[in-house]
Design brief:
Layout: H1 2-20, E1 39-46, E2 49-55, H2 62-79, E3 84-101, E4 114-118, E5 121-125, E6 139-155, E7 166-168, H3 169-176, H4 187-193
Helix pairs in contact: 2-3
């Protein structure tokens, strides 16, 4: 009975861990304890000047990473009492990792093989290594992760109409706000159930 409970608890913990890895990075701060989950971070360079970064996981698109970066810049601007932010520099890095997995045998612990007597004595024939199964295609997958960063300068007053690198923080938050996916912390489930 104890082993069954342990197996149940272990499988539930594994399922919860896997479920956390199956969604795109929500709009959240980057945690030092779990940087693989992704999120935003910002550093004050000098008064009114910040470096803002958003890192996504392998399920977060480049567009989403850049959108969350712009939203964080606007949020940071308003939190510091400013109205506009100007992009001094911006960059989006792509980190790609390729994985090659050979086609697995049909059964994990057993595969057929035969011994036969040939012109050079007894031989071993393994269809997975020597036969047609050895020529099966390999599974090649590429995993991409994006990190967007920008250096911004905060400003007061209205945005100039001819300045394409300056953004009105309130307008950015209003326009991008509906597209922001926040982490599910359990409170949304409680509200849905009541």
């Amino acid at each position: 009975m104890r082993l069954t409970r342990f197996a149940l608890v272990a499988s539930l913990a594994l399922a919860a861990g896997l479920a956390a890895c199956t969604t795109a990075t929500p709009y959240q701060p980057l945690l030092a304890s779990s940087p693989g989950l992704g999120g935003y971070s910002d550093v004050r360079i000098e008064p009114g000047r910040y470096r803002v970064t958003f890192t996504g996981n392998s399920l977060t698109s480049r567009e989403t990473v850049e959108l969350y970066l712009a939203y964080r810049a606007a949020e940071l601007t308003l939190a510091n009492g400013f109205d506009t932010f100007t992009l001094v520099s911006r960059n989006t890095d792509r980190k790609a990792t390729s994985r090659v997995d050979p086609q697995p045998a049909p059964l994990p612990y057993w595969r057929p093989y035969w011994r036969y007597y040939g012109p050079y004595g007894w031989r071993l024939y393994d269809p997975w290594l020597d036969g047609p199964m050895a020529r099966q295609p390999m599974d090649v997958s590429t995993i991409e992760k994006f990190t967007a960063s920008a250096e911004i300068v905060l400003g007061k007053g209205p945005k100039r109409a001819d300045d394409s690198e300056t953004f009105d923080a309130r307008a950015v938050m209003e326009n991008l706000g509906p597209r922001i996916q926040r982490p599910d912390d359990g409170r949304t489930k409680a509200k849905a159930g009541s």
